[in-house]
Hints:
CATH topology of the largest domain: D-Maltodextrin-Binding Protein, domain 2
Number of helices: 18
Strand content: 5-15%
CATH superfamily of the largest domain: Periplasmic binding protein-like II
Number of domains: 3
Distance between the termini: 29 Å
Order of helices and strands: HHEHHEHEHEEEHEHEHEEHHHHHHHHH
Helix content: 40-55%
Shape: globular
Amino acid sequence: MNPKPMQMYHHPERRFARGARCGSLTTLIIGYAVIGRMSHRFFLFPIALVCSLLQSQPLHKVTINFASRTGTTWPLYIAKDAGSFEKYGLDANIVFAVHPAAIAMVISGEAVMTNYPLEQAMLAASKDASLAIVGSPFRKSLFALMAAKNLSNVRDLKGKRFGVSQIGDAPYNYAVGLLAKSGMNPRDVQWVPIGTDVNGRAAALVSGRVDATMITAPVYFKLEQQGFKALANTSDYDDIYAPTVYVFKKTTLASNPKLVDALIEAHTEAIQRFYNDKPFALKAYLKHMPDDPADLERVYDRYAMTNTFERVPYLPAAAVQYMIDHPVDEQAAAQMKKFDFRTVIDNGVIDRLLREGYFEKLFGPGIKDEESKKAKLAFR
């Protein structure tokens, strides 16, 4: 089923925060009082009453999927705890589900949006054109190729067991990219599907079920402390793309564009909070995903230093081309090369927010150069 349009978004020029709407109305009423030379004290009760009615409007319930218990989900945690969704009239429930269940949630209408790895989103959209990929808020995780204690370089992995959650998932693609940097191809290792997330892959490495796997920070910090080897990291290579993207149904974009705007704005404001309020960002993450505070602070510092979260979340053309050039298998290669991704990738939502001055209002005039640069590099 498709999400029901929200009343507050029907007018094309309306995108008010709940609190801001009350403040604007107060200003308007007091303005009339001044014009009429009337004392504003007579208006205090009506204003309070109207504001109370506005604030008491029921929130629009939405479900948002996140497909990874890693730093990619950090802004969702911040938005949830900071009240960013409520500001836009949304009662957001964030739900974890891995691929392909996460995409199925969006297709079925169970979730209105997911924050998803680009390669999986592209492959899914090439098979089901009802999906829309709208912008990219995250560049790449700190993804380390972790190996057994007796292995010292990537080429030592030839013939060894390599654990992934499933063939063709994001960790698999990152592993293939890192293997290629050492002159190896996917056939040089034995792939072992684990069927779970990063914690399951880490457990498989520790137990000896596999010889190597892809692990995100801060989980791989603990493995290093145990003597396991970090042989390579995606963050060390600018030409290995591993972004996440917003995925909606096209019907949601068409029938309720202001809902899409609201979700992306709430997420972008959480990204601003991430950069501006380190203590709150750490607290929000630890509330939803308990971890070692010191390890998490290391991740935060690296993310902040490398601007991992996108302030202007265009999906770059280079990232799309990278996924087409690095398919998971021959069948996926044929599917991706024949498909016109212009039919499912829509940077137009980000264009509109930029034209409306949203990013400049949020981040200040210093964001204009970044806007221009990102817009030129965006997939069209």
